[in-house]
Write a structure and sequence with these properties.
68% helix, mainly alpha, two-stranded antiparallel sheet, 98 residues, globular
């Protein structure tokens, strides 16, 4: 099992940080969370593939997290840093496959 699958399994057991359902710096964290998680799930279930639109959406969401993660409380930083790492792993694998 590669790092992506191991980290994804661990991440799925994490709870969404309390008090972070609101917008931070005009980013809806719950929406970003769901979108990235959906892209990762699709990537895993489709034999490690994302189409160009999914890859673009994932890149946008990961970029948003890069801008806002440092403004979160410690629980939020940990959760969203883990999600960002997962998103970057998927993007790297998609890039390597093309």
């Amino acid at each position: 099992m590669n790092d992506l699958y191991k980290l994804w399994n661990e991440f799925q057991n994490q709870k969404f940080p309390t008090g972070l359902g609101e917008e931070i710096d005009v980013a809806d964290l719950a929406d970003i969370d769901g979108t990235i998680a959906g892209c990762i799930s699709t990537f895993i279930s489709s034999g490690e593939k994302l189409d160009s639109e999914q890859s673009k959406i994932l890149q946008i969401c990961v970029s948003e997290l890069e801008k806002i993660t440092n403004n979160l409380n410690e629980e939020g930083k940990t959760y969203f840093s883990n999600l960002q790492t997962l998103g970057n792993l998927v993007l790297k694998q998609v890039s390597n496959a093309s």
